[in-house]
Structures are given as C-alpha cells and as structure tokens.
Automatic annotation (TrEMBL):
Catalytic reactions on record: 5-amino-1-(5-phospho-D-ribosyl)imidazole-4-carboxylate + L-aspartate + ATP = (2S)-2-[5-amino-1-(5-phospho-beta-D-ribosyl)imidazole-4-carboxamido]succinate + ADP + phosphate + 2 H(+)
NCBIfam families (alphabetical): purC
Name of this chain's protein: Phosphoribosylaminoimidazole-succinocarboxamide synthase
Chain ranges of the SAICAR synthetase/ADE2 N-terminal domain: 6-235
Keywords from the named record: ATP-binding, Ligase, Nucleotide-binding, Purine biosynthesis
Pfam families linked to this entry: SAICAR_synt
MF annotations from Gene Ontology: ATP binding; phosphoribosylaminoimidazolesuccinocarboxamide synthase activity
Cellular-component GO terms for this entry: cytosol
Length: 253
C-alpha cells in the first residue's frame, strides 16, 4: 500500500489518512514503552504480533455484535479502521487485583475481585493518565451520562468475550484497557471500541503457572516480550505453531 499522509503518531502506532473518507490506516510499530515512555525499547516483530492479535479480538467482537472501528487487516503491520472521535478516557476493566490497583489500595497482586471493577482514566500523558470519577467526566464534558452508561455496557461485553476466549486457551484475563470513540452514521452517533486490543493493553497470566504474557514482562524485566506475545498468538491460533520469534521479522511487509 502506498504511504499516505501521517495524521498522528503515538507510542505504539501511527495513523495515516485512509483510502476513503471516514477511514484511517493504523500502523503498528515495534516500539515498546512503559512508565509513561520513561522506559523504551524496540522489539522486533512486536508490531506484527499486535496487528494480528488486535485483528483477532476486534473481528471476534464485531462478529458477536459489539461494534468496533476495525474494518480489515491490510498487511502484516497495517489495518483499515473507521475514523472516530476518541473520547479522552481509558476504560479499564479489572477482574483480579494487579498493577496500580494493588499499589493504590494495598491489595495483594493476584487477589480475585468480588466482581469486575470498571475504572476511568483521563488520557493525558503529561498528567500521567490520572484516575477520574464519573462525576469528573460529566462535569468536565468529556462524556455525558448516557455515554458513560454505554461505555460501561461495552466494557462489560468486551470483558465477557475476552475472558472466555482466554480461558479456553489456558490464560487468565487479569485486566485490560480499551478506548472508545464516537462514530457518526448520518445524523446519529454511536459509541464503538477503538484503538487496539492486544497484550500491550491487557494483563494475561498463564492459569497454571501464573507466568505473565503481557507488557509486564517488559515493565518488570521478566524475559522476552516477543516470546510472551508469540505464546499468546500461538495459543489463539493466530500464528502457526512452528513460527518462532526468530522467524517473524522475515514475514514483515
């Protein structure tokens, strides 16, 4: 595909002008970042894996009636998506205490929560993406109450889908983050899942061993991030079982 005008570059992805009005091309980079980009590295093949995994999850959601921005994968690193107005919030669903929740509330990491807990974080790297309440969100106009109700409903459905998919391949879904955008259909607006769903945005632990298969491997120096992501892709059938991290970079378009 011919390169189009770059519209935005983030820590892990680049957005380009799409081939038709209302579309974008989303390119997955190999960059890995943590702690608000204080820790950085380039992991060969990471973008390929996240593109394929996000395609897998977004397609699955589309198939069960959960609307997403995903249209189709274009090649090993790019996918065609709908252009949406991103709500400036990260929606985090937690099934097990881990990460910032454990630190913030003094709950031992790995403690199952009594029910899934949904949190909202204001998207602002300079502020460190602070935790905010529904009161903040409505008061500052980031979303109205109906939007919030719809966002919670979407998050619950995504959690049910991802939890089941992961459980089937021996992986425990600890928590995950999604972003939600406003899509216009004529004069009507609907909220849809946007950005990506990948091990970059989820905590995934092996059910039997507790081995981490997500970005915590990079955050905490627990081994090879590419190997962890490859294992998730292998279990889900996204990559052939004989593909290894050493061979993946040769497949990049």
């Amino acid at each position: 595909m011919a390169r189009r005008n770059k519209l935005y570059e983030g820590k892990a992805k680049i957005l380009y002008e799409g081939p038709e009005p209302g579309t974008l091309v989303q390119y997955f980079k190999d960059d890995a970042t943590a702690f608000n980009a204080e820790k950085k590295d380039v992991i060969d093949g990471k973008g390929v894996l996240n593109n394929r995994l996000s395609e897998y999850f977004m397609s699955g959601l589309n198939n069960i009636g959960v609307p997403t921005h995903f249209i189709k994968r274009l090649n090993m690193r790019e996918q065609l998506i709908r252009q949406v107005e991103i709500i400036p919030l990260e929606v985090v669903v937690r099934n097990v205490a881990a990460g910032s929740m454990s630190k913030r509330l003094g709950i031992e990491e790995g403690t199952p929560l009594p029910r899934p807990i949904i949190e909202f974080y204001y998207k602002d790297d300079k502020l460190g993406d602070p935790l905010v309440t529904e009161e903040h969100i409505v008061a500052f106009g980031w979303a109205n109450q109906q939007d919030l109700d719809d966002m919670v409903a979407l998050a619950v459905r995504v959690n049910d889908f991802l939890s089941g998919v992961m459980l089937a391949v021996g992986i425990r879904l600890i928590d995950f983050k999604i972003e939600i955008g406003r899509a216009w259909e004529g004069d009507f607006q609907r909220l849809i899942v946007a950005d990506e769903i990948s091990p970059d945005s989820c905590r995934l632990w092996d059910i039997e061993s507790g081995q981490k298969l997500d970005k915590d491997v990079f955050r905490r120096d627990l081994g090879s991030l590419a190997d962890a992501y490859t294992e998730v892709a292998r279990r889900l059938g996204v990559l052939p079982s004989n593909v290894t991290h050493a061979t993946k970079p040769h497949l990049i378009n």
